[in-house]
Amino acid sequence: ALRKSGNIDALFSFLADHPQTPYERQIKHVVDSLSWLQAMEQNTADAYQAYLDNVKIGRFTGEYEDVAEGRHDYLIQLKAVEGDELKDVEKVLSGFFKALSSVNNKEIQKYSASVLLKFFDKENQPDTVIADSLKADFKNRKIKSISYTLPPNLPEIIKDNKGIYFTTLSVKLETTFADRKKKKQSAERIFNIELDGEKRVRSMYQKGK
Fold first, then answer.
1. 8-17 and 24-42 helices cross at what angle (nearest 10)?
2. Residue 200, Cβ neighbours under 10 Å: how many?
3. Distance between CA atoms of 94 and 99, rounded to whole angstroms?
4. What stretch of H or E contains 96?
5. 0.70 exceeded by the pTM?
6. Burial class for 84, CB neighbours closer than 10 Å (0-12, 13-18, 19+)
7. CA-to-CA distance for 109 and 153, rounded, in angstroms?
8. Are strands 115-119 and 201-206 parallel, antiparallel or unpaired?
9. CB 187 within 8 A of CB 173
10. Distance (Å, whole) CA 159 – CA 96
11. In the prediction, which pLDDT does 209 show?
């Protein structure tokens, strides 16, 4: 029953109450896997460090120790962007979403990497065809236009040791349909955004998708 419960504290309590149990190895394996899943869900340097600390004192079997060390070392070097660098990134993000609203290939290319690793649900999209793909989608869905509006204050933007920028944006969308009788639709979507070292958008996709 404990094995199926996923309750780490209960599993440790069982080990404390039954130090000679023949299931010790199995239980520690289960605890290790559950603790690793928790660390990945939190995905913070502190969470991975906690996992590593427990491996050192023997609480976990440490099957994910090498991966945890790699992720911990990566996360601790991330830094928030500030000053003129931050202004430059914000300018690119603002220009990119304005270009998407106008469905203008030339403007989209101005703020995009030559190939977007991910754009909505598509991968490896050349910046030269983004507007064309949007227009094709509009035609299929009988949409006249979609406007994208960023919040007045953008959230924190993070940069890694490879010069890649990351942020998560809450964007308001207003959809106008070709059929004038159909009312405009307003929605809010959360997008994960990445920019390359030249401060060009290289990835944009809906969070949770």
1. 150
2. 19
3. 9
4. helix 83-102
5. yes
6. exposed
7. 25
8. parallel
9. yes
10. 19
11. 53
